[in-house]
Amino acid sequence: MKSLLAVLFLCLTVSTAAAGEPSYGAPPADLAEHLERLKRAYPGVIADYDKAKLTLKSGVTIPMSDGRRDKSFDELLDDPDVDDMFAIPYPAHTKPKAPGVNVDPGRVRVEALFRALYGDCRKGEAALRMRRVPWFGGSVLITTRQGVDRALEATARDLAKLPKPMMKYLAPSAGTYNCRAIAGTQRLSMHAYGASIDLNTEFADYWRWRKPGKDGKIAWTNRMPMEIVEIFERHGFIWGGRWYHYDTMHFEYRPELLAR
Ligand SMILES: [Zn+2]
């Protein structure tokens, strides 16, 4: 009886650990498709890819995989390789719902790639080549690299066709370019590349603004209408409301994660 209890106890602790701390690092089955989409999304920067690496037009190569298949969630964010960026699929054009623990599709970014795409703001803003784009009664500063400015203008044109009560969510924008690390981390935010936009903070929900529940889990909440999300996704922007660590006013240009 004692040994049966011991086995039961062991099973319980093992399964709890596995549920609380999933491991990442195995390449997704459809990796080739993701890589093709990545190359097509940034034709001016990415020359080619193979099983071992991504080759940039500058000649720089970025390793495809570090061979690790046992990464924790924090390691996935802090030290990702190229195939890790596609480990969690982005559920584009679907009804929003509370994501599972640590399901943050799009938050895994290989910094070397993004610095190549947009430049490093810490070395000066000029490299980012930004311009002002009109935004619902004001304007926002956005990068012209990778066509992000044109994608945002196209987004704005479609958003302007929405019914009037939707406009309050869009402006004033809580920010676009900001040379900073992600709160609580050393990693550069997509705002540091001028490739993302925050909408009106008055209607925003953000995981850090809420205490976790009694079970330690973050309770997902959202007020952003899906009509708005749908338009952004159509133009290549992913939405922070689809993350377990949600940030519902946040949209960033990641066409490689969106099937067109
Ligand atoms: Zn943001």
Give structural notes.
The protein contains 7 helices and 8 strands, in the order ααβββααββααβαββ. It is of the alpha+beta class. The protein has one domain. A hairpin with a 4-residue loop joins β2 and β3. It is globular. 34% of the residues are buried. About 6% of the residues have low confidence. The structure holds zinc ion. Zinc ion (ZN) binds next to β6.
Structure described in brief:
The protein has 260 residues and is an alpha+beta fold. It has 7 helices and 8 strands.
Tally of separate domains = 1
Q: Helix and strand succession?
A: HHEEEHHEEHHEHEE
Instruction: Give the integer mean of the pLDDT values.
Output: 89
Tally of alpha and pi helices = 7
Helix content: 25-40%
Low-confidence stretches are 5-20
Output the structural class. Answer: alpha+beta
Present as ligands are: zinc ion
Largest sheet: 3 strands, antiparallel
N/C terminus separation: 58 Å
Strand element count: 8
Please compute the radius of gyration using only Cα atoms. Answer: 20 Å
Protein name: M15 family metallopeptidase
Organism: Taklimakanibacter albus
Q: Which structural traits does this protein have?
A:
globular, 13% strand, single chain, 260 residues, alpha+beta, binds zinc ion
Per-chain topology:
Layout: H1 2-20, H2 31-41, E1 46-49, E2 53-56, E3 61-63, H3 73-78, H4 111-118, E4 130-135, E5 138-143, H5 148-159, H6 167-170, E6 196-198, H7 226-234, E7 237-239, E8 250-253
Antiparallel strand pairs: 1-2, 2-3, 4-5, 6-8, 7-8
Helix pairs in contact: 5-7
The chain binds zinc ion.
Zinc ion is lined by residues 191, 196, 198, 247, 250.
